[in-house]
Amino acid sequence: MTTVDNPQAPRKPLKPATAAHTALAILFVMNLLNYTDRSVLNAVLPLVKDEWMLSDKMLGILNSAFIITYMVFSPIFGWLGDRVVRKWIAVGGIVVWSIMTAASGLARNFAQLFGLRMLFGTGEAGFSTVAPTMIADLYPSTARSRVLAVFYVAIPVGYALGYIIGGAIGGRYGWRAVFPAVGIPSLLLVLPMLLVREPQRGQSEDVTAEELGEYLKTQAPLKNYLNLIRNGSYVCDSAAMILMTFVTGAFAWWGPTYFNRLRGLDLDKANYYFGIATLLAGITGTFFGGWLADVLQKRIKSAYFLVSGVGMLLGVPALLVVMLIDIPQVYWPCVFFAEFCLFLNTGPANAIILNVTSPNMRAGAFALNIFLIHALGDVISPYIVGAVSDATNLHVALVTIMPLITVAGGVAYLLGMRYLERDMERALQEMKTKPRV
User: Fold this and answer.
1) 181, 203, 208, 217: which one has the fewest Cβ atoms less than 10 Å from its Cβ?
2) Which domains does the chain have, with CATH numbers?
3) Alpha helices in 104-173 (DSSP H)
4) Which residue in 205, 214, 220, 192 sits closest to 366, CA to CA?
């Protein structure tokens, strides 16, 4: 008897089909453009600094402009994403961030660029909040670390493209030419996003047809979002991601400038080599971490946390070598390995959020995570590093801050291991429990 004939019959999660893989591919491309547009400013920081005679602290504030609106609007789009068609939120976000990126090339002073970067953040908040929850409804929990690794490998690839494109165009035509060069293609490529079908919430979960039908009639009350503070997996994961985002945000923002200023590399070469290291480490680390976590999860129920935590801790020695040994043949491989270790957690850490929350509140849970990791992570880390750099120098700022924060992030991931199996089962049971009227 089929599930349709008997709605109470056990229903296997919907198997990924060609449509799911196509949607994943389109979301990946848009996320790639997202991070390319985000990172091009990093590549031309020295040019902006020289033209407007800015301090390192002011350069750090430029990064905060984008992140502030990104984190403030994420909860708003998260609340909407749990209640309306998510695809249109994503499309609107793409249009806004693309236009604001292209327009950034018209900025004639610090205040104008600051304002445009703030508007840019609102667009990114819409897309980044709802896209992962759409992926969660296309793939079962046992595959989410791998598919999210595909989606999030756009982070290092996009950053690398931003460094390479920004360095090449900025060095030849000036920093303003960089922004329309990446913003306009993002706007044109929004068309494929219109072809993505909105997946049914919860369609990939292991519940009966009746249970899913009853569940979809409900909306998560506000108290469910507040109860996330009691979700040990969510709390540990978010804490670790805050620390990880602090480190990666500071490294991404100051990396090319560090090698330009302290290692004497030309800006285009610093961007190129740093971009290549980020590209290779991001692709291999993200894919390997996603694959390894899913494989180990079959044997170790807390493998998502284990892979994430061990990865961060393994990256600490490499970070120290990068900053303490001035030999290119040594520090460039260590840049690669440090970033490889940091990127290992990308797939499993984001999969944890989706697997320990129920489908009708995932966008909100993701939005809250975005708010926290940026408010306490890369909003403040470029500024803090810049302030310490102004007081001492950039080398002292990075070597005293980044290794310690990385160790703390690894420990936070490992502390979450005790909660994961329990919280995943609780999220599934919420879908199977008939709501009280």
Assistant:
1) 217
2) 18-425 (1.20.1250.20)
3) 110-138, 144-152, 154-173
4) 220
> Over 70: is that where the pLDDT of 7 sits?
no
Three-state DSSP state, 9: coil
A 10 A CB-CB count for 396 gives 13
- In this predicted structure, what is the pLDDT of residue 66? 82
DSSP label at residue 197: P
57-67 residue pLDDT tens: 788 788 778 88
pLDDT in tens, 412-423: 999 999 999 999
- Please name the amino acid found at residue 36: T
> In this structure, are residues 361 and 224 in contact, taking their beta carbons and an 8 Å threshold?
yes
Q: What separation in angstroms does the CA of 401 have from each of 263, 343, 371, 389, 396?
A: 19, 19, 22, 11, 8
User: Longest C-alpha distance within the chain, in Å?
Assistant: 74
Return the exposure string of 199-222: e unless at least 16 CB atoms fall within 10 Å of the residue's CB, then b: bebbbbbebbbbbbebbeeeebee
DSSP H or E run through 334: helix 328-343
Instruction: Rounding to the nearest 10 degrees, give the CA dihedral for residues 105, 109, 111, 113.
Output: 20
